[in-house]
Amino acid sequence: MSSRPAKACIVGAFEHPTRKATDKSVAQLHAEVAAGALADAGLTKDDIDGYFCAGDAPGMGPVSMVDYMNLKVRHVDATELGGCSYLAHVAHAADAIAAGRCNVALITLAGRPRSEGVATGTAPRVRNPNQPDAQWEFPYSVTNVTGYGMCAQRHMHEFGTTSEQLAWIKVAASHHARHNPHAMLREVVTVQDVLASPMVADPLHRLDCCVISDGGGALIVARPELARSLKRPVVKVIGAGESVYHPFAGAIDLTHTGTVVSGRHAFEEAGVTPADIRYASIYDSFTITVLLQLEDLGFCAKGEGGRFVADGNLISGVGRLPFNTDGGGLCNNHPSNRGGMTKVIEAVRQLRGEAHPAVQVPDCQLALATGTGGMLGTRSGSATLILERE
What we know:
Elements: E1 8-15, H1 26-41, E2 50-52, H2 62-68, E3 75-77, H3 85-98, E4 104-111, H4 134-137, H5 144-159, H6 163-177, H7 191-196, E5 199-201, E6 204-205, E7 215-222, H8 224-229, E8 235-245, H9 259-270, E9 279-282, H10 287-297, H11 305-309, H12 328-331, H13 340-352, E10 366-374, E11 380-389
Parallel strand pairs: 2-3, 2-4, 9-10
Antiparallel strand pairs: 1-7, 1-8, 4-7, 5-6, 8-11, 10-11
């Protein structure tokens, strides 16, 4: 257990219950999750003096959303790292609070990809022709799922990983999602169910892919002394790291992610090791995303991820490392094509003892939340947090 003082604490967390919001705008979803997080913390919008959002925020990001929510802030941050942006925002908010730039920071995520018919994994991404990578990759119509399928193929080639092993990640997520009334997929699946689902991008099947949902979430980060004055369990931010992983001018290794760097720095700052972690929220856009991050974080050696996840080792109450006890992106939700926010929210629930009783980790004192953003196989961001219950 770490004894390091926290620069800041997470005092509010809220996940929008909707999975399809045909009657709401993206801005309205941002405002609703903000209101939910404030209510959870026991604060009001007048307490907020810092605001953080990423590319899912409409208009001019903080400029538009601060106006829409009628906030009065003295610090804003619009860091964009894709799906892991919100993990980075927690770290940035903690740094801003420690530096005296704000006292209470609001972080929001929202989106409507399901209502808007977004084919998150299978349609080519719309790219700005001024992006430096676009001229080389756009002609080949790379998609999310083909990029991740390429990583999975390479891992299988290098280390003998099997589709059956990857399927165990979906199985674990489904065991948790059955206890979540808001989860999009609540039926427990088997390894054979995953393997029998249609192939999307060899070797990834449909059930290796995350769901597509509307929704969102919000977090509130505050000074430690304020956190201790509220009537909520104190969740300290004790370690953080972030990185960007890219093709390295042709020297890319498809079996690694930027989590190698972000995880190492988070563990070093927190003064703990992977063996100390009681619960892990791991970004799960695809099953291979989880496996690569488990290895990169040091929960197992590179190439051992398949054996690590096999036989239910990620299932709460059964395995060595309970993960994504809300069902994660694979079964619960994946709002705005980005799943990092909900990873922090479920980690906070676990540390507070507020997860569903069937999946609550006993005496959960130390948790990890980590994610990637962008596209594995080309370039992606990574961010990792270590959180501790005081």
